[in-house]
Amino acid sequence: MAVNLEFENKLWEMADKLRGNIQPSEYKDVVLGLIFLKYISDSFEEKYNELVAEGEGFEEDRDAYIEDNVFFVPPSARWDFIKKSAKQNTIGQIIDDAMMAIERENKSLKGVLPKNYARPELDKSKLGELIDLFSFNLGDKEAKAQDVLGRVYEYFLGKFGSSQGEFYTPPTIVKLLVGMIEPYKGRVYDPCCGSGGMFVQSARFVEEHQGRKDDIYIYGQEYTASTWKLCKMNLAIRGLDANLGGRDADTFGNDLHKNLRADYILANPPFNVSDYTLIQDDARWKYGIPPANNANYAWIEHIISKLSPKGVAGFVLANGSMSTSTRAEAEIRKNIIEAGLVDCIVTMPPNLFYNVTIPVCLWFLAKKRENRKDKILFIDARKMGTMVTRKHRELSDEEISKIYDTFHTWRDGKEEYEDVQGFCKSVSLEEVRGYEYILTPGRYVGFEELEDDGEPFEEKMARLTAELAEMFAKSHELEEEIKQQLGAIGYEY
User: Fold this and answer.
1) Is the dihedral of CA 244, 245, 247, 250 positive or negative?
2) Which among 3, 95, 179, 462 is placed 20 to 30 Å from 479, CA to CA?
3) Could you tell me which residue, 4 or 108, shows the higher pLDDT?
4) Per-residue model confidence (pLDDT) at position 343
5) pTM of the full predicted structure?
């Protein structure tokens, strides 16, 4: 579990408090609502103490908070009040009232916050114990620097799964996507924005490069209602304004941003969706009508349709998207390659997601690429990363930098770019045509060169053959011993 925040070891303890009448899939909703409440209360308290120290009497002035992108939290919703009430049997109603009070004070959150803590099936004594666990500061700089709600969401989805097929994009992938396309200034769009991790990391990127997060304009759409609300909450606690449409909606059947042309598109679409709204004569299908039983190429064409004349896109897809031979998909892939839209393809190592084992790749598209229109950069990153648990892998910051530095060096036409066997290769469009427009990097970059250990080939083969013969002999001995042991207890093999 790689949340890397102070509460990482407490998440299961929190969930364990809720055992009883509510389903495990609901744990995350209870915990996420409390985290949101605690987070904005901590941020409010920090600003409140600053205003008290200034001594000008503005600590209850709403405008003093709004101008600093801090939510004004009314007294009945402040964490101190909630914690003091934790042992009361009315604590569920107190939390619901707190959520409603925050919505009244902050119109952008109207109808977004969870208000079902008073329901009978949620044990109030356990809810009180859960509140007591939140004794640390969630509004400090370390927590603000990370996608706190998103990463807790990731934990619970990974632990309990989701009936809606949701999954969270790991920070490793988000950092790499953002580092590759560099969303400095302009319109940033995610057509399947989930909990908003792409937007959080984009804003962080801008600030780390001496920009202002107000320089990016965020647009998103999300199909699942609970996740749409979570995204609103996640962006709200960071003071990020976003146009996510009036509610959750299906991107294919009800595009909420029809006229949008984005400068940067970041996305992690659901993989291999077999049932989606396919409108046959849709203007988005400029490069071919995608198949009805798989939405991968529908996402690709939707993303292309949303790019501004100088727009760039980076998104995650299942590995099959690079080489599918389905007639419709192969034709679309050929057409977008011939149109000069494909900039770079990166294959990623396995085990990056918590609850999705399917191997993934990253696609990067660009509308304006005159200096490299007949080239595609292929990067094979499958050997990167370290297993941080038995099932989960992460890339280091150095590995992420190596990938996007390689891309930027190639993209900007710098002399120091060089193909590296087994890792990266700049490939001509002619060569890609020769491989029937397949975009799998391993086909182009070749195998990593192995260091010569100095042992002559004939000697090495003789040694390895002898070792193999010894192993075979040993296996026969073990087989005979097992047969004898079974025979001794009356079993013939």
Assistant:
1) negative
2) 462
3) 108
4) 96
5) 0.79
Would you kindly state where each structural domain of the chain is located, as residue ranges?
8-143, 171-445, 453-493
Domain 8-143 has CATH 3.40.50.1100: no
b vs e for 322-332, b when ≥16 Cβ sit within 10 Å of the residue's Cβ?
bbbebebbbbb
Q: What is the largest CA-CA distance in the chain?
A: 92
Report pLDDT for 165: 41
CA distance linking residue 86 with residue 88, whole number of Å = 6
**In Å, what is the CA distance from 30 to each residue of 18, 134, 288?**
9, 13, 44
What is the secondary structure of 152-198 as a DSSP string?
HHHHHHHHH--TT---PPPHHHHHHHHHHH---SEEEEETT-TTSHH
The sign of the CA dihedral 315, 320, 325, 328 is: negative
DSSP element (H, E) containing 243? strand 242-243
What are the tens digits of pLDDT across the range 431-454? Answer: 999 999 999 999 999 876 545 555
Q: Are 235 and 218 in contact (CB under 8 A)?
A: yes
Structural tokens at position 168: 């969270």
Q: Which ranges of 55-170 would DSSP assign to H, the alpha helix?
A: 62-66, 79-84, 91-105, 124-133, 141-144, 148-160
Q: Does domain 171-445 have CATH number 3.40.190.10?
A: no
